[in-house]
Amino acid sequence: MPQRRKIPPFLGSHFAKSPKGAQAAIFAARHGTPYRGIDNKVHAGAGDAFRKAVAEDHEWFSHWDFDFDGPLLPDPKFKTVDLGNLATLPRDGRGNRRKIEAMTRRILAEGAVPIMFGGDDSVPIAFINAFSGGPPVMIVQIDAHIDWRDERFGEKQGFSSTMRRASECEHVWRIVQVGARGLGSAREEEVKAAQDWGSHLFTSRHVLKHGVEEILQHVEPGSQCIIALDLDVLDSSIMPAVAYPSPGGLSFHHVVDLIAGIAAKAKIAGFSMVEFVPELDPSGTAGFTAARIAAHVLGHLCRASR
Q1: pLDDT digits (tens, 9 = 90+) for 109-160
Q2: Residues 234/251, Cβ–Cβ less than 8 Å
Q3: Residue of 32, 124, 132, 239 with fewest CB within 10 Å of its CB?
């Protein structure tokens, strides 16, 4: 079971032991599958940082939200629960994956939308696996890196392999990848593997020049869509608190406009947000930016439920 902390639940929801009766359920997966010599503990406090960042915002729910041209959560019957932090361990990759998948499946079984805060970018592997046995899903990955390595340091479940593993899932029928830029773990062979599979790749430069409309053409109307957000896709000027910040990334509005476009065409079936490093955010501004993106997801889920 997730461990509760003496911190506020996310955005005015309430801590719960079960997702029963909820339309959306939040949990934090603090650790994923580690690489030898790379510390994944730096992300462990991300979920708590997001909760604290918007701790007071629920007091303003009756106020006008200009991002939505109305209240953020207009339906008072829309219920979100916070299931706390999974009891993951830094070096227990197999056990962590098992806990993440089990929690995600539990949320889906109750008919709620799972929202997961990482953790490094290996945690979505188990999150995506949990959708097997249900309707086919497409994935929109919003990330500075394409994550198509088959293995790294002999590990096939790490953060450089997230979309490669997703491509092997029978229930994943389309992958759209947005925001790649600069240097990452991808070599020419990984780019070719992604292209050969049929992944639709849109670089950060493409989005900065053309916006998100062309990307949204690849979102099938009425489809089930998992949004996998790695916060390093945002420009380092607004999101320095990630493991691998780099210049030239997307703006806050690029990301929330893309999420809004997806919500208008498809059903947001799940949302993951990863790679935040709380120690690199002394002012709390980056944490608030990230939490606000998650709030946008809830806003769209609430509107879709009416």
Answers
A1: 999 999 999 999 999 999 999 999 999 999 999 999 999 999 999 999 999 9
A2: yes
A3: 132
